[in-house]
What does this fold into?
Amino acid sequence: MTEFVKSITSPSKFLSGRNLLSKLNDYIKNYGDNAYIICDEFILDRAKKEAGSSIESAGGKVTFEKFNYECTKEEIEKHRESVRNAGANIIVGIGGGKTLDTAKATAYYEKLPVVIFPTIASTDAPCTALAVIYKKDGSFDEYLFLPKNPDIVLADIEILAAAPARFFAAGIGDALATYFEARACYQSNGDNLVLMKPSTTGLGLSRLCYDTLLDNAVNAKKAVDKKVVTKAVENTIEATIYLSGVGAESGGLAAAHAIHNGMTAVHSLHKAQHGEKVTFGLLAQLVLENAPKEELETVIQIIKDVQLPLTLKDLGVDKFVESEWRQVAELSCAPNDTMINMPFPVTPDDVYNAIVAANAIAESYKEQ
It folds into this structure.
């Protein structure tokens, strides 16, 4: 890719509101009338009742298929075959980040439009032209770079606020890293998520994402704990899904997500959410950068206030095994990962040291 091309990419439409599931056909009818819907198990019955009825009552066809928990190449191939068997002309993903990535990848390979309907605000996956592919054992496999973003992203505020609060907090953690990674990528003139150069707009949206979280995230998390929707919840969802997604894609990723990818090789972390691991990756990135104390303390305070895991022990690591975390550091510096977007050279030793130091710093703030 030419080094002079900067990019701003985003979904064609991002819509947020209420009762979007029961009106799904209103939003997809201009793209297709035979929908193949990849859906998380917990919302499958409701989706069949509400979304299915919306499509069928308008004369369209719909096929529902339950997502099988992991976005692997095998899972994508299974859905591709089912799409062809159904004769579908539009793909819809309803669920969490891995479900949505599977829908995006399936639509890409089958050359069909895709509509994304997140049910948890745990990552910025809905808006990006990217799918994260995992191996069957849950470890990171590769990034699948897509030529276009989703056609529509539908964010139903009530469904997102009703999801377990842990997922909402994980989305805040994922979004918290957006500005710091985009800042690093911008400083290094690295590659963003569409393999072009970070734009000032991408950096600006990333900063807006961070500022929105500073103003809203803590109160939003308290509201979601009580299963209610407030303006702070709406603003935070816009930040965690749209601003974080578009900011990361146009601004770029750096150490936080690279360290997350390395952490997927640690078996004791497999139950940790993506955004929870990215949060710790952000702490390690700030240590790598020797960020100002005030900046680090602001990030740590948000982590604590929204009840994200702060230390490795909080994430599920009962025993720190040096060889295991040396491997994490090696994987974080893989040539095809985003550590290369840091504005200075980073070695596996640097990453290991930053992880150890970040955990020690987190422990020191744990009881404050």
